[in-house]
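Database export, one record per block. Field names are fixed; values are copied verbatim from the stored entry.
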Amino acid sequence: MLPAFSKMGRLKKLSCKDYTEQFKHPGIQRLFRIIPDDYSAVSLIAALSTLETGDVGYLEGGSIFRLKKNY
């Protein structure tokens, strides 16, 4: 984790748009276009890392299912 901190300072100054433009592959650039341009690159890295480690998720059936069940 400590080696990542040195890069975080640089990434927090970049927007997601600026970060994804650094990739040469057009497929990767296209993939990250779904993220708003004004988000910071740190938020992108944090979201991807939590998805990769399995620390995040969503309710099966979505939130509407839960609302219907409770009300």
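Remark 1: The first helix runs from residue 2 to 11.
Remark 2: The two ends are 43 Å apart (CA to CA).
End of record.
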